Amino acid sequence: MIKKIAVYCGARTGNRSEYAKTAYEFGKKMAEHQIELVYG
């Protein structure tokens, strides 16, 4: 089972609002499954 996921991305939200929405939804799913985020 996956316990942690590493994400490497920029600090700015950019111009594509669908990216922010998708990232938010993905984060919610991670939390539901108790998967930790390693941000770099």
Overview of the structural elements:
The protein is α+β, with helices and mostly antiparallel strands. It has one domain. It contains one helix and two strands, in the order E-H-E. The chain has one helix at residues 17-32, and strands at 4-7, 36-39. It has a two-stranded parallel sheet with strand order 1-2. Strand 1, helix 1 and strand 2 (36-39) form a beta-alpha-beta unit. The model has no long low-confidence stretch (mean pLDDT 90).
Give me the secondary-structure category: alpha+beta
Poorly predicted regions: none
Task: Provide the helix percentage.
Answer: 40-55%
Envelope shape: flat
Mean pLDDT across every amino acid position? 90
Distance between the termini: 22 Å
> Strand order across the biggest sheet?
1-2
What is the helix/strand order? EHE
What fraction strand? 15-25%
* Total of DSSP H or I helical runs spanning 4+ residues: 1
Instruction: Summarize the biggest pleated sheet.
Output: 2 strands, parallel
Q: What's the alpha carbon Rg, rounded to whole Å?
A: 11 Å
- Tell how many strands the DSSP assignment holds: 2
When the domains are counted, the total is 1
